[in-house]
Amino acid sequence: MRYAETIIVGGGPAGSTCAAELVKRGQDVLVLDKAGFPRLKLCAGWITQKAVDDLGETLDGYPHPILKLDIRTYFPKIPFGLNWFPTPAANYSIRRTEFDHWLLERSRAPVEKHAVKAIVRDGEGYVIDDTYRCRYLVGAGGTMCPVRRNLFDGTPRKSLQIATLEKEFPLPERSDRCHLYFFRRGLRGYAWFVPKGNGHVNIGLGGKSKYFKNSGTNIHDHFRDFLGDLVVQGLLDEKTAGSMKATGHPYFMFAYEGDVRRDNCFLIGDSAGLASIDLGEGIGPAIESGMMAAAAICGDGVYTRAGITHYSLGGVPLRLMQRFYRPKGRMPQAN
Ligand SMILES: Cc1cc2nc3c(=O)[nH]c(=O)nc-3n(C[C@H](O)[C@H](O)[C@H](O)COP(=O)(O)OP(=O)(O)OC[C@H]3O[C@@H](n4cnc5c(N)ncnc54)[C@H](O)[C@@H]3O)c2cc1C
Fold it and tell me: 155, 27 in Cβ contact below 8 A?
């Protein structure tokens, strides 16, 4: 049986940041991920300045293209015509396939490809699939993390399941502006157009799964409408929009509200339900929680949910923003 003092299940931003910090502190750590990196991760790939700072990195140190975002939001009729994105400091876009691979490599932690299934307690430690043993276990396996499913109570609340459709593709002549759309009538959800630094763009749309079920509407139809709106706005040409095939992904927001630490076991990132409900910002909290869990494993600080920063739209819940939203037909023209 392979032993490591700390085993991290999942090598996304949460797991790789935790691994990097543990390696830096001289700890014996192993990362298990079911995917081989670089791996595809459906995500708009927008990160905040705080996430970059928490990594202890500068933008110059990032080896791939990174774009500073000029963000336009569309909540027609919101008081004072709000059309900027009120987060402190700057926002950037990265491609997840590049960003996550870089994070994992920079951690210098050993990584094994293994899809974790069963985990049991073994005295003070844990045994994984009768193959791995550790003293400290970190669940960083995303919204369906096997560590949470095996060792913590509570399953994600179905009512908080978000269905998304998304596509990342090269569009060299794309606009450099990031556009966010919040809907109230019709689809209860949001959509985005996020340009990337290397001529790519990521577009997507998401809404509560419950909405699609209750309204009998199909997310693909909403996505087609959204593509039509992007054509009207001049952000996409008709040919590109017409041939677009998006990929779907179910996702949970704030779906787990239980403990994030039990004995020597920690939940970080999406496995702890840390993505924000308003914008789905999850990369920042994943990084922050990974750092905090690593410090706690080293006996340097406590790890609690309350200690992890939640921001994006200043912590304003989506339903509160939606109270002010009165759609007026089609989206405004991009300018
Ligand atoms: C459509 C969409 C758009 C988004 N856009 C943004 C955005 O623009 N900005 C932002 O900040 N957040 C965004 N998010 C949220 C963000 O993607 C997540 O919050 C973030 O990826 C969380 O990081 P993580 O490390 O916790 O989990 P993940 O990145 O999901 O990594 C989990 C890892 O665990 C591995 N794993 C899973 N199960 C197992 C298993 N059984 N055994 C071994 N390994 C396993 C997976 O292979 C994966 O590599 C978006 C999410 C979605 C769905």
Answer: no
